[in-house]
């Protein structure tokens, strides 16, 4: 978001803070488990049979839960050359179309993730014997978070992003 824009509400700041805290917690779990496993392997020649699985599933959850935070920061891949070549009203309209397409895509992915998650509800992981339902739940949860994040930044995305780009790029 451009500086000087409207300040996020308290609820939005709490939502973003909780989302970021979840990422930190998942990263901490992954680091501890992988570090512990490496230490055990080095010191004792044995390793934890479930460590790779925990690290893999934690990484999956981190990616999906963190995607919304990356979206807020503009950290996803974006092609902006076309929109910056357009006059401001056309560029704003293009951003509106992109916004609608993203919301539609996120909604479809929630539905597909939910379907995939429920189909895998009886499958168990190899080492942990964890229901794969919980692993695959990362997809609908992550895309639902993307919908919320996009809804919260939509106005700034349409307004501030283009004004900032127009100030940076000579036409």
Description:
15% of the residues are buried. With 171 residues, the protein is mainly alpha-helical. The two termini are 22 Å apart. The protein has one domain (10-168). It contains 6 helices and no strands.
What are the main properties of this structure?
6 helices, elongated, disordered C terminus, DctQ, TRAP_DctQ, cell membrane, 171 residues, mainly alpha, TRAP transporter small permease protein
Write the layout of secondary structure elements.
Layout: H1 10-44, H2 51-72, H3 81-85, H4 88-119, H5 132-136, H6 138-168
Helix pairs in contact: 1-2, 2-6, 4-6
Summarize this structure briefly.
The protein has 171 residues and is mostly helical.
Number of helices: 6
Overall strand count: 0
Calculate the mean pLDDT score and round it. Answer: 91
User: How many domains, as an integer?
Assistant: 1
Biggest sheet overview: none
């Amino acid at each position: 978001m451009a500086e000087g824009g409207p300040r996020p509400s308290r609820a939005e700041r709490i939502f973003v803070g909780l989302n970021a805290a979840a990422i930190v917690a998942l990263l901490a779990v992954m680091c501890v488990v992988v570090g512990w496993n490496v230490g055990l392997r080095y010191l004792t020649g044995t390793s934890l049979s479930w460590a790779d699985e925990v690290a893999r599933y934690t990484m999956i959850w981190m990616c999906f839960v963190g995607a919304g935070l990356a979206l807020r920061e503009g950290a996803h891949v974006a092609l902006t050359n076309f929109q910056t070549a357009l006059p401001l009203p056309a560029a704003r309209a293009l951003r509106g179309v992109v916004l609608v397409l993203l919301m539609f895509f996120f909604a479809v992915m929630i539905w597909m993730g939910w379907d995939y998650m429920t189909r895998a509800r009886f499958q168990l992981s190899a080492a942990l014997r964890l229901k794969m339902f919980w692993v695959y739940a990362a997809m609908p949860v992550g895309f639902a978070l993307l919908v919320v994040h996009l809804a919260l930044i939509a106005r700034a995305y349409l307004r501030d992003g283009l004004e900032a780009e127009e100030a940076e790029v000579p036409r």
